[in-house]
Design brief:
Layout: E1 9-21, E2 29-40, E3 45-48, H1 57-68, E4 72-73, H2 79-83
Parallel strand pairs: 1-4
Antiparallel strand pairs: 1-2, 2-3
């Protein structure tokens, strides 16, 4: 994959998924996780599967996407939750 500028992004789809994870036990923990699908103006796309985000990173991601990308596909309305993310409650 090559590098892209914000202006090169045609659309970003925020995909909310319900996933399960288990670490060697018969009981799995369920999570709601966010995947990102970037579509670029040159026709390429990039699917970002369940990225690990720490501390305040989701807030920065939401704010930057909202300000820099014109076409955000967000059927589950999670962009506002990202922008308001605060892990220390």
């Amino acid at each position: 994959m090559q590098s892209y500028k914000y202006e090169d992004i045609q659309s970003v789809e925020l995909i909310l998924n319900h996933r399960y994870e288990s670490y060697g036990t018969p009981i799995a923990k369920d999570w709601y996780v966010l995947d990102y699908r970037f579509e670029f103006k040159d026709g390429n796309h990039f699917y970002f599967y369940w990225p690990i985000t720490l501390m305040m990173i989701p807030r920065f991601i939401g704010t930057i996407l909202d300000e820099k990308v014109e076409n955000i596909i967000d059927k589950d309305h999670v962009i506002d939750a990202l922008k308001k993310w605060y892990p220390f409650k």
